[in-house]
Amino acid sequence: MASCAGPLIVIGGHEDKEGDKAILQEVAARLDGGKLVIATVASHEPEGYFDAYQKAFAALGVTDLVELYVNDRDETRSPKNLDLLRDAAGIFFTGGDQLRISSQIGDTPIEEMVRAIHDSGGVVAGTSAGASVMSETMLVRGSSAESHRIGDLHMAPGLGLIRDVIIDQHFAERGRIGRLLGGVAQNPRVLGIGIDEDTAIVIDGDTFKVVGAGAVYVVDGSTVSHSNIAEAGRQEALSMFGVSLHVLSSGDQFKLSSRRPCARDPST
Amino acid sequence: MASCAGPLIVIGGHEDKEGDKAILQEVAARLDGGKLVIATVASHEPEGYFDAYQKAFAALGVTDLVELYVNDRDETRSPKNLDLLRDAAGIFFTGGDQLRISSQIGDTPIEEMVRAIHDSGGVVAGTSAGASVMSETMLVRGSSAESHRIGDLHMAPGLGLIRDVIIDQHFAERGRIGRLLGGVAQNPRVLGIGIDEDTAIVIDGDTFKVVGAGAVYVVDGSTVSHSNIAEAGRQEALSMFGVSLHVLSSGDQFKLSSRRPCARDPST
């Protein structure tokens, strides 16, 4: 039986808002004219975020847009905020700090409603911090533009909308292959997914497809024959042999359960 | 029969010159008190390079150090420059532009003498541009900190001291996994080797070992099941499925012919 869960649109940050807006178009197309909630919870200073999305989505015909922001967990129980979500066709988490999203709305009525939107077929989208937070265990902090040091990675429980993956964003732009490998080394049960800026994966059930200008890197640790992550000192560099790496670009697809990529039909 | 060729020490740039100098120590240890030629040919403005190496190597007991620089190909035939190399135990190529090394000394008496030093057991070392130039086909230009675009990679014939590999340097620091994947996609016969700053591989015959603070990434394309490099447009992002990736750190070894990594003995 097919799941009734809606699509998850996971964006690597800096999605185009002024050109062809390929990624926001994917969001818009799945709203069926319904209301989209822009959740700016990840940001300490959310001013301006909503306006930029309002303008971009208006150009795509999405006009029923509202902003959700909470200063504190207390506000997740306010009837006003819960009303915002009640008849939403989708929710879009903007960037900032993933730990702000999880610590402010984790285990609150808002999180319950986000899950209900997803379960009943609505769209859940997130960019940058809003992308990372979708997994069960999320990357919170780790060095960019250097190889992974054993002790240099912080993870935390995310919203858990996607199981058995770790997501990283701004991927090629910030040189984050090292820290994603480090995350996967900790437990190869999780698949590492690194998403470039202006690039997204659209997850429908067991499959995702790639949209946007950059690439998506899938790090599959199931083939790893050796890693030093449990033995080496905190300042030592990671060793990890036999990683399977897939690089996907626009139109390519990936089947999560079998961990298999599938190329875009070249005629399309 | 064992080859009599000497070691190749291939450094990812910015090797430590003031602390424990682990990488320069590897060079020094293999000179047996002999003369080391510092070749600053890669640089348009080599002033200061030699002094920095002189100071660092002096602290390691290497005092017989000379500088080789040529302004133009004509100077590669000067008896003075050829004399510098005649009784050298090793040569060390400093950083700059790899195309300057290959275009200035390629197919000249100096290149012949470098090859003779290598063939007779001498040390050939190179850092940054001096690392890239060691392979048959070398990376010359390509974007860092973004995913590979099909048309965005320039390669050129290097000195060819190492066959069937492409070397990239400043690897994690400049986010170069994308361009190395792009190079390997063009012909998976070549193994991609990405070397971090202050990190080196020491190649002895068919095996290399890793020295230094960072990591070495080996991209093996022999398992690749799909790539779009021949079909996609120049501005499109690379797709490449099923790459085998090995991350090695200090003490790990790699056998080139069988493409197999071997972990450091944890007791050492």
Question: What descriptive keywords fit this protein?
Answer:
homodimer; 7 helices; nine-stranded mixed β-sheet; 22% helix; five-stranded mixed β-sheet; 16 strands; hydrolase (chains A, B); globular; Rossmann fold; 268 residues; Class_I_gatase-like (chains A, B); alpha/beta
Secondary structure: elements and pairs:
The structure is a homodimer of 268-residue chains.
Chain A: E1 8-11, H1 22-29, E2 35-39, H2 49-59, E3 65-68, H3 79-86, E4 88-93, H4 98-105, H5 109-119, E5 123-127, H6 129-132, E6 137-142, E7 153-157, E8 165-168, H7 177-186, E9 191-195, E10 199-204, E11 207-212, E12 215-220, E13 226-227, E14 240-249, E15 253-255, E16 260-262
Parallel strand pairs in A: 1-5, 2-3, 2-4, 4-5, 8-9
Antiparallel strand pairs in A: 1-10, 6-7, 9-12, 10-11, 11-15, 12-14, 13-14, 15-16
GO molecular function, one term (chains A, B): carboxypeptidase activity
EC number (chains A, B): 3.4.15.6
Protein name (chains A, B): Cyanophycinase
